[in-house]
Amino acid sequence: MSAMLRAESLSHRVPTSEGPLTLLNNISLQLARGESLAITGASGSGKSTLLGLLAGLDRPTEGRIWLAGDEITAMDEEQRAAVRARCVGFVFQTFQLLPGLTAQENVMLPSELRGDRNAAGRAAEFLGRVGLEHRLGHYPRQLSGGEQQRVAIARAFASFSGNDGILFADEPTGSLDAGNGEKVIDLLFELNAESATTLVLVTHEQRLAERCHSHLRMAAGEIQGADLQPRDGGNLSEVSA
Ligand SMILES: Nc1ncnc2c1ncn2[C@@H]1O[C@H](COP(=O)(O)OP(=O)(O)O)[C@@H](O)[C@H]1O
Ligand SMILES: [Mg+2]
Question: Ligand 2 (ion): which residues have CB within 5 A?
Answer without folding.
Answer: 48
